[in-house]
TrEMBL record:
Residues 476-519 are annotated as: Disordered. The lineage of its organism: Eukaryota, Fungi, Dikarya, Ascomycota, Pezizomycotina. InterPro entries: Fungal_SecMet_Regulators, XnlR_reg_dom. Residues 181-254 form the Xylanolytic transcriptional activator regulatory domain. It comes from Fusarium piperis. This is Xylanolytic transcriptional activator regulatory domain-containing protein. One of its GO terms (biological process) is positive regulation of transcription from RNA polymerase II promoter by galactose. The chain crosses the membrane at residues 403-422.
Amino acid sequence: MDVAEPETGQYIRSRIANACDGCKARKSVRQLVTIRVGQNAFAPQTSRYSVLENAPAHQSRRVPGDNRLPSINSDDIPSAVSTYLSVATGLVDLFDNRRLLEDLMLWANLDQKPDDATTVVNLLVLAIGSQMDNEEMAQDYFEYARDRAYANLSGNLSVTTIQIFTLITLYMLCSCQINGAFLFFGVAVRAAYSVGIHRTEVNARFGPDIHRQRDRLWKSLRVVDLFLSTSMGRPPATSDVDCTVPYQNPNEGANEAPDLLNASVQIFLVLEGVVTEIYSRRKISLQLTEGISLQLRDWSSRWLKQLKDIIANPETHDRAQASGACQVLSTYYYAVMLVSRPFLMYELCRRLSDTAVSSNGRSALTSGKSKLADACIDAASLMVDPILDLIQRRVLVAHVPVLVSWLFASSLVLGIGLLGGFGRILEKYTRMSIHALDHCSKHDTHARQYSLIAQSLLTAALEYLEKRELAERQRRTENSSQLFGLIPSEAGTDPTSPAATRDPSHLAASPASNSRPRDFLDRSFLQHNGLQAVGSPPFGDLDSAFLGLSESMLQTPDPSYWGGPTGMEGDSGSALNLFALLDAGGGIDLTHHL
């Protein structure tokens, strides 16, 4: 007896199988390129995806059973707190950041530090903030704090428990241990549900300050959860209809300083809708896209100008604000890319199809699908500019796992856009995205692999465009050479003989034939144009319909090519007057033109 699978089970299974993570995007691009361009278009080293756990960079110095607290140098705390805030801003808001440095300094100066949850939280903050400057010390802090978190985990859960496991998640994200981050984040979410921070009426019972802290803690969990689920292709853990925490503040526009956490959670909620409505259901339409477009435009009207102002003037804000604003803005661009990416892939398949006809191009330019494909590429280009600007200003100096994931998606979109003929300017933006990934790869091994994949795609796109342009140049040269004899004719054939131009055997040796020798073009012409070293196939290997051409254009012209039999004047009225200035009666001095 067959039992129908519950709709919820189908939905979750579909959601996992059809996620929009970076691995899925890379596979889609690889499939398109290998089918339309060539089996070896991507380099072999890019065939794997960095989803495996990274081993720690240093061997653990901790001895099992050693409960001694690692040494704390109070002089390093200001720098560590500054780096932590650069990592966390726009992603999580777990404490009162105005008091964080003061609280850590007071704790560090204690002669006897308590063995409690506060010490664990402080060590995790220092671990995240020290990863770049002293990775070995950061690992010591993290391992001690993680072990103490294990030991203290019991049924007595609190807000501090949520903070601890969220910080562990953040540290592991910065360490490129994404599977471990996903595992520990599950503990934080279940603890949050246990203490009820997803219900704002419960949070309100603790007074205004605690109410705000608990609400913002839940928003932080939502942001991290949706980032993990989107980037890894796994179902979110916080999508609960029972949640009553508001994600919008009615007075947002009146505030002088934008609330980056609110901006972040709101754009991630739109991103969640894209995954739910499009990628999980494997369906997309212009009507559905328009609904999501309204949400994106609404978000843009509230936040876009404020975020751009922060990024454009980082000297008037602290480094953490500029870094956080850049991460939130990049998430917005990624959401635009995600909703329009199916239309870009459709347009690429149409453009790279062997049966594409140039006559369809004009109507395609005005179609809604083509506009959405352009929007995907525009969003990818717009994402790269502010990131590279902050890198050059030395503002983005910390771990930025969100930016690395979105930059990878941007580099893929730009690379395939270049491949699909959306403009050679995309080569510049692709190289910019690779440069940004290379900057992040100093401390992020995922960024290093993403950069290799993007470089491979860029190389494949440039080689493909070069071969296509060479083939087009060959076709044009073959046509024009018949007019003036620019290319020597084949041995034993008189190119002026009318019989030769109509003989079937002569037609078989046209450039549309695979039997034609590769070097039928004059070498001096290729060398002059810098194309001698290009390893492109004969034009006969290319389907003429790919370029929107008919076979008749590739054949030797017969006398009708000139509009009449060769050697005859024909109708004098049909001649093209190239000397209109001389028809006025002479008297024109052309000496200075000679």
